[in-house]
Amino acid sequence: MKYSVNPLCFCSWVLLSVCHSIPVLDDKVKNDAKLLVQTTIIRIQKHTSELKVSPNIIISGLDVIPASPPLDGLRSVDETLDIFHLILSKLPMNNVDQILADLFNIQVIIKALARSINCELPEPRNTSNLQNFLQNNSMFHITIGNVALDRLQKYLHKLFINFHELGKC
Fold first, then answer.
1. Residue 163 contacts by C-beta under 8 Å, 6 or more apart in sequence?
2. Residues 6+ apart with CB under 8 A from 81
3. Where is 160: in which H helix or E strand?
4. Closest CA to 151 of 105, 104, 88
5. Domain extent for 157
6. What's the rounded mean pLDDT across residues 113-125?
7. Which residue in 83, 101, 131, 152 is deepest, having the highest Cβ count within 10 Å?
8. How many domains does the chain contain in total?
């Protein structure tokens, strides 16, 4: 008899065991996270290759989408991923469900790494300006979505390269 395993359930089970079981080496967790970051970058490249938008496009207010946030530690990474997750989940875009799931899973790993070094992550910050921007510019959701995906891809690439430096809160 064959058993079907839902990938999201399996990933959640694995991450749950990482978070609540015998401590796992941070290097193993970081390597798994790097693999997930790399996979997400590839998914974004595939998604954005279908509909390219000029990176020079000017829409007032795009500064609410992080352009090149620093990697100051686990807190800043978690906060930045929260912002990208909010943007992509609020826009009516097709085929971003897997990217959103990947972002969520990267955040779970970031939170687990933070707990492993006793780093308390703050509550998500006030995003009313971002939500107002998304609501007021909803007619430009394709452009905003592609700008957000482009910036997320660049941020994840920077995160991938510098993941070994994320040992601080």
1. 30, 33, 34, 37
2. 103, 106, 107, 110
3. helix 141-162
4. 88
5. 26-53+66-165
6. 82
7. 152
8. 1
